[in-house]
Design brief:
The chain has three helices and 20 strands. The strands form five sheets. A six-stranded mixed sheet has the order 3-11-10-5-6-7. Strands 14, 15, 18, 19 and 20 form a five-stranded antiparallel sheet that branches. Strands 12-13-17-16 form a four-stranded antiparallel sheet, with no helix packed on it. The longest helix has 46 residues. By secondary structure, it is of the alpha+beta class. The radius of gyration is 40 Å and the shape is elongated. The N terminus and C terminus are likely disordered. Helix 1 runs antiparallel to helix 2. This is CD86 molecule. Keywords: Cell membrane, Disulfide bond, Glycoprotein, Immunoglobulin domain, Membrane, Receptor, Signal, Transmembrane, Transmembrane helix. InterPro entries: CD80_C2-set, Ig-like_dom, Ig-like_dom_sf, Ig-like_fold, T-cell_Activation_Regulation. Its main location: membrane. One of its GO terms (cellular component) is external side of plasma membrane.
Length: 305
C-alpha cells in the first residue's frame, strides 16, 4: 500500500532520489519491513559482573566453514569501533581509546572478550562480518548483544538512631542501608515480627547514585512503637528486581520491659537481697563467736601449763 501511494504521488516522475528509481525505493522499503523485525528479535541479552570479563558472541553459525583469514570482523557500540579483526589479524588502529588493551577475540568461538567491564560499558554492541567477493566486501552476518553490568550490593545493615534504654510507648527509630550496587534497586521493605506474626512496612527509600562510579546507595528509615514484654524481630529486605532477587539484613531483636515486670522484679529481688544480707550477718556473727571461743581456750591452756 505504501508503495502504491508512493507511485501515485510521483506518477510522472521517473526518479525519486538520485540514481534510484521508484521501484527500487519500494523494494528497499519492503526489505526494511521484512528485515527490521528480525534484527530486533536477534538482540541477545548478556550480563557481566562489575570489573569482570564480559563475553559478547557474534553467534556466527559459519555453515560454510569459512576460514577467519578470509573475513573482516568489526565490533561496534554506537559510532565507536570496539574491536576489529582484519583477515585473521587483530587491528587496533581504528579502536576507540576507551577500548584499547581491553578487548580480545576468541577466534574459535567468534566471541569478543571485554575486560574489566564498567558501568559505562553497558549498551548495545553489534558484530559485523564481511567477506570479500570479486574485490568488494560484502556483509554476510550481523548480530547484536545488549550488555548489562551487575554490581553486588552490600548486605543491608540496621542501625539504631538513638541511644539509651528504650521505654514503653516510645518510638524506636531505625535506619537500614546498603551500598555499592548496580543496577538501581526497586524498593526496601521492613519486616516486623512478634508473636509468630510478620507484617511488611513500606517506607520512603532514599536512593543515591555516585557521580563517578555510577553505583547506587540505598537507605530507608523506620519509626515505630513495639509492644512491651514481647520479643520483636525487625529485618529489612532490599528488592533488586525479578532477575536479581532480594537481600535481607540480620534480624534485630528488641524486647521492652513494661513497668509491671520491673515492679515484679523489685518485689522478688528486694526480699531475696534482704535474706542474703541477713544470712551474711549471721554467718559473720557465728565466725566471730567461734574465733573468741578458740582464743579463750588457748589462754586457759597457757595458764594451766
Amino acid at each position: 500500500m505504501a508503495c502504491l501511494l508512493l507511485l501515485k504521488a510521483v506518477k510522472h516522475t521517473e526518479v525519486l532520489v538520485p540514481g534510484k528509481s521508484i521501484m527500487e525505493v519500494c523494494i528497499f522499503f519492503l526489505y526494511a519491513m521484512i528485515l527490521l523485525p528480525g534484527i530486533a528479535a536477534s538482540v541477545h541479552q548478556v550480563k557481566s559482573f562489575l570489573n569482570h570479563t564480559a563475553y559478547l558472541s557474534c553467534y556466527f553459525p559459519n555453515s560454510q566453514k569459512t576460514d577467519i583469514k578470509d573475513l573482516r570482523i568489526f565490533w561496534q557500540k554506537d559510532d565507536e569501533v570496539v574491536h576489529e579483526v582484519y583477515y585473521g589479524q587483530e587491528k587496533h588502529d581504528n579502536l576507540s581509546p576507551k577500548y584499547i588493551n581491553r578487548t580480545k577475540m576468541d577466534m574459535d568461538k567468534w566471541t569478543l572478550q571485554l575486560l574489566n567491564a564498567e558501568i559505562v560499558d553497558e549498551g548495545q554492541y553489534k558484530c559485523i562480518i564481511q567477506q570479500t567477493e570479486k574485490g568488494s566486501p560484502r556483509v554476510i552476518h550481523t548480530s547484536e548483544c545488549l550488555l548489562n553490568v551487575i554490581a553486588n550490593y552490600s548486605q543491608p545493615e540496621i542501625a539504631q538512631l538513638h541511644g539509651g534504654e528504650l521505654k514503653p510507648n516510645e518510638y524506636l527509630n531505625l535506619s537500614c542501608s546498603s551500598s555499592g550496587g548496580y543496577p538501581k534497586p526497586k524498593q526496601m521493605t521492613w519486616l516486623i515480627s512478634h508473636e509468630n506474626k510478620t507484617r511488611r512496612s513500606m517506607h520512603h527509600t532514599d536512593i543515591s547514585q555516585d557521580a563517578v562510579t555510577k553505583l547506587y546507595n540505598v537507605t530507608s528509615k523506620l519509626s515505630i512503637t513495639v509492644p512491651a514484654n514481647t520479643l520483636t524481630n525487625i529485618s529489612c529486605l532490599l528488592h533488586l528486581g525479578e532477575q536479581l532477587g532480594s537481600l535481607v539484613s540480620v534480624p534485630l531483636g528488641i524486647e521492652i520491659q513494661g513497668e509491671e515486670i520491673k515492679q515484679m522484679k523489685i518485689n522478688f529481688f528486694g526480699p531475696l537481697i534482704a535474706v542474703i544480707v541477713l544470712i551474711t550477718i549471721l554467718l559473720g556473727f557465728v565466725i566471730m563467736k567461734k574465733n573468741r571461743n578458740t582464743s579463750s581456750t588457748d589462754q586457759n591452756v597457757s595458764l594451766a601449763v
